[in-house]
């Protein structure tokens, strides 16, 4: 083949191949950037190395390493009541945290559940968060949640307890997905400042690339699959990250037969709704209403 013929035959393929490689590389970068916007395990600085311990809050605990279905090792805190008899008679709260930090940063919340409500508490640092292995993705976090639920329901003490799942922001999406698939194993859902899905948030921070969204978290679809357990919605009216209409729409979409409750905090922003007056009083009243024969205080 002559050089001219070779050039005419191969050059277009090289151009097409090179363009495809550039496009593919660009899409890969966009996916990576997207995930870095959704999952921020390195913020605040040092969050991958320093994970506060429950003992710093006067809470007894056992650190546990779980291996997920896809062979990733994640770390959890298991905080049981002081005796086996007490632990088996009190509810267990599974805490799913938001997109930043690690489980140790939510210990002030665990402290209220443990000390005020006398609950057992289980906390998890998702894959890629805290000292857990791996890289955070939607599918990966769902597998993490499944592994923690299986641990609780196989534990010789916790398996018999009422299970409350508490999720903030991204943690709310994790909680909704878990319950949509495992409702028979869970008794109550508490949501704070969570979203309908990721594509409906991305335009604020990453415009024009919704068609490339690989992380969906379709809570607006999943919440309709929850049929029987009661749901408490805790919403900060001044949430500047997740507009309040996300929570309002999730509330409207929920059709659980055990009822739902809406609590709004007029001064609550994305990060400080949990600090608003009477926040835990509302939580306690909801738990007391839906766990028959159990006293919160």
Write the layout of secondary structure elements.
Layout: H1 3-38, E1 62-67, E2 73-79, H2 84-89, E3 92-96, H3 107-116, E4 120-125, H4 138-154, E5 163-168, H5 170-182, E6 188-192, H6 202-205, H7 219-222, E7 231-236, H8 245-253, E8 260-265, H9 279-290
Parallel strand pairs: 3-4, 3-5, 5-6, 6-7, 7-8
Antiparallel strand pairs: 1-2, 2-4
Strand order of the largest sheet: 1-2-4-3-5-6-7-8
| Total domains | 1
CATH architectural type: 3-Layer(aba) Sandwich
Strands, total number: 8
Order of helices and strands: HEEHEHEHEHEHHEHEH
The CATH class assignment is Alpha Beta
Structural class: alpha/beta
Helix content: 25-40%
Mean pLDDT: 89
Which sheet architecture does the biggest sheet show?
Answer: 8 strands, mixed
Beta-strand percentage?
Answer: 15-25%
Low-confidence stretches: 5-29
As a whole number of angstroms, the C-alpha radius of gyration is: 22 Å
Determine the N-to-C terminus distance: 88 Å
The CATH topology comes to Rossmann fold
CATH superfamily: Alpha/Beta hydrolase fold, catalytic domain
Number of helices: 9
Shape: globular
Protein name: Serine aminopeptidase S33 domain-containing protein
Transmembrane segments: 12-33
InterPro entries: AB_hydrolase_fold, Hydrolase_4
Pfam families: Hydrolase_4
């Amino acid at each position: 083949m002559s050089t001219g013929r070779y050039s005419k035959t191969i050059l277009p393929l090289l151009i097409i191949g090179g363009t495809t490689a550039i496009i593919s590389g660009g899409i890969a970068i966009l996916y990576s950037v997207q995930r870095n916007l959704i999952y921020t395990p390195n913020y605040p600085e040092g969050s991958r190395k320093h994970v506060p311990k429950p003992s710093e809050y006067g809470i007894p605990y056992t650190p546990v390493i779980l291996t997920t279905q896809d062979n990733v090792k994640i770390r959890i805190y298991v905080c049981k009541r002081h005796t086996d008899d007490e632990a088996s008679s009190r509810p267990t709260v599974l805490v799913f945290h938001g997109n930043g930090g690690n489980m140790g940063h939510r210990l002030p919340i665990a402290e209220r559940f443990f000390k005020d409500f006398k609950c057992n508490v289980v906390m998890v640092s998702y894959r890629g968060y805290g000292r857990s292995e791996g890289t955070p993705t939607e599918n990966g976090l769902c597998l993490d949640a499944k592994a923690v639920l299986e641990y609780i329901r196989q534990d010789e003490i916790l398996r018999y307890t009422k299970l409350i799942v508490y999720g903030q922001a991204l943690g709310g999406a994790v909680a909704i997905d878990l319950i949509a698939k495992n409702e028979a194993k869970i008794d109550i859902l508490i949501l704070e400042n969570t979203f309908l899905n990721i594509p409906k948030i991305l335009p604020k921070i990453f415009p024009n690339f919704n068609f490339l969204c690989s992380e969906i978290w379709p809570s607006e679809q999943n919440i309709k699959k929850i049929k029987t357990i009661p749901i408490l919605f805790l919403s900060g009216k001044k949430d500047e990250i997740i507009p309040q209409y996300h929570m309002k729409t999730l509330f409207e979409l929920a059709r659980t037969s055990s009822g739902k409750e809406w609590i709004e905090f007029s001064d609550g922003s994305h990060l400080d709704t949990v600090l608003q007056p009477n926040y835990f009083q509302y939580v306690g009243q909801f738990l007391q209403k839906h766990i028959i024969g159990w006293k919160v205080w």
